[in-house]
Amino acid sequence: YRNHNDNNNVTNSSNHHQGVVVTAPIIPKPPIVMDPKMSKKMSQRSSAGQKWEDPSLVQFPPNDFRLFVGNLAKDITDTKLAEAFQSKYASFAMAKVIFGNQDGKSKGYGFVSLMDPKDCAKAIREMDQSWIGSRPIKVTRSDWKERSLSEVMKNKKKKRRKRNNWL
Q1: Which residues lie closer than 8 Å to 119 by C-beta, 6 or more apart?
Q2: Tens digit of each residue's pLDDT (9 = 90 or more) over 47-87
Q3: How far apart are CA 161 and CA 156, in angstroms?
Q4: Which residues are bridge partners to 131 per DSSP?
Q5: What is the pLDDT of residues 90-137, one digit of tens each?
Q6: In degrees rounded to 5, what are phi and psi of residue 65?
Q7: Which residues contact 120 (CB under 8 A, 6 or more apart)?
Q8: Phi (first) and psi of residue 119, to 5 degrees
């Protein structure tokens, strides 16, 4: 059981001995620094015949295991989504709720990034249909990698080769 106090310290209640409180500072995770060429590649997207750049993808760590979290209540923020996963999964990296460009309101879904594939599978099993706020959430593996421009191009080449082999 952990208590957070105003000094960004964590007090472990099992360490209360004769009125002495042992505290440890919370160490923030270092920012992820990426090669600009890689970030350009990662942000190019393709779907439904259209291509665009998505700069928000660069915020996620490379080689993560990303979950799609759907059916989020409109009042759920990045912080609330992160709290739901961070306390249960040690490899939690970040959470992001998607908001509309025009009105700034939540679109009702978001993404959670985990660094361990076992945590990813465990989160899908445990968190799917669990409640965050006023709704049960839907948790599945995200297909964001399949939508990257490089993956779309690879898949098109494979389809062409297959088709040519049949002729």
Answers
A1: 65, 89, 90, 91, 92
A2: 677 776 767 677 888 889 999 999 999 999 999 999 999 99
A3: 9
A4: 136
A5: 999 999 999 988 899 999 999 999 999 999 999 999 999 999 999 999
A6: -110, 110
A7: 65, 67, 114, 141
A8: -65, -35
